[in-house]
Amino acid sequence: MGTTFAWTFHVPDFSPLRFFSIDRGAQAMSCELTTKYLGLELVSPVVVGACPLNTQPETVRQLVGAGAGAIVLPSMLQEQVVHQQMKSTDPANAIQRSGYQPQQDRYNGGTEVYLQTIARLKEICTVPVIGSLNGSSPGQWLQYAKEIESAGADALEFNLQQAVFDPLETSNDVETRMCELVRQVRELVSIPVAAKISQRYTNLSSMTAQLQRVGVSGLVLFTHLPQWDVSTDRMHWTIHWELSPINTLGGILEGIVRARAGDRTISIAASGGISNAEDSLKSMIAGADVVMITSAVYREGPDVIRDIVDGIVRHLEETQYQSLQAFRDACPTDHVGDEKSVRLEYVDPLTRSDTYFDPTPLVSQQSGDSYGHPN
């Protein structure tokens, strides 16, 4: 048995501090799980999605040891880069005009430390390291993509935030703006670029095709969105971040199917609420090349990656596929048919039964004995 040790995640405010133990003697990854994403060869289809955990070298070492095929750094924010660029020319107004806030640097290390983190991880990491940008408007700040590449990142994930605030801007305008951002970044770097997008598109197949035409190598479906609420005391809307809830895979699967209808060659990463091997297998059957795990890692530590990898291996063995690639080759390639078939898939389950599954049933307030008789 390998030596075990305890370690601590530095978890953001939305999650309590947790402690985990991991075995140094974890079994090496089988080559049967080798897959490709963004043109990169991965030893496993499980990728640790963008989060602050991936800035800590020791944490990354353990995540990779548990079976992660790649890691994605937390996003460098548009506001941080703009602030950095304005400090030397307009220091008095840099913060106000950029939207920068000091806590943003605590999230990802800041513009200078971020590049150092990439370089340091590349020295110790045996799997691809993917940088990340988050923004919504064009500008000189996009040049930071070149710095991410120069620091050694193997690929770049662009988290496209729609930032819709103009009532006169049409959906076509929004999509054109998003694609133009990707095109500009793609022209700045030679490493592959993935677009991380939301579900808020009328025709995801069309958006996929548009992004493919401007040069993206892959899609991440979908970006994690905050929860909106309204304060009854302040009479104002509020935003807060939460871990992705479990049992929310349906929307991700739908998105993958619809994106695949737009392009069957583009790399796709499933992201959002994936927590076990079954979720991962379903995502790949729907058309994903890899699955991104983030919230599950916060909840369970690196062991969840090992469990997912082991579960995928068991499924391949039970179904007698010699490799992950053989399994994916056997998956259907056309989930979406014509209008009639799409309508039938919706109408048939709606009208077939008078009762519907309730995923959140009310818990009875009554107590009873061991035979179920209420007290």
Report on this model:
The protein has a single domain (23-352), classed as TIM Barrel (Alpha-Beta Barrel), CATH 3.20.20. With 375 residues, it is an alpha/beta fold. Helix 10 packs across helix 12. Strand 14, helix 10 (277-286) and strand 15 form a beta-alpha-beta unit. It has 14 helices and 15 strands.
The proportion of residues forming helix, as a percent range, comes to: 25-40%
Strands of the largest sheet, in order across it? 5-6-8-9-10-11-14-15
Proportion of residues in β-strands = 15-25%
Q: Can you tell me the CATH architecture?
A: Alpha-Beta Barrel
Number of discrete domains? 1
For this structure, what is the CATH homologous superfamily? Aldolase class I
Oligomer: single chain
| N-to-C CA distance | 51 Å
**SSE order:** EEEEEHEEHHHHEHEHEHEEEHEHEHHHH
What is the count of DSSP helices, taking H or I runs of 4+ residues?
Answer: 14
**Which residue ranges are poorly predicted, with pLDDT under 50 across at least 5 consecutive positions?**
1-31
| Main sheet summary | 8 strands, parallel, barrel
**How many β strands by DSSP?**
15
Q: Work out the radius of gyration.
A: 22 Å
| CATH level 3 topology | TIM Barrel
User: Could you tell me the mean pLDDT?
Assistant: 87
Domain Dihydroorotate dehydrogenase catalytic: 33-315
GO molecular function, one term: dihydroorotate dehydrogenase activity
GO cellular component, one term: cytoplasm
Pfam family, one: DHO_dh
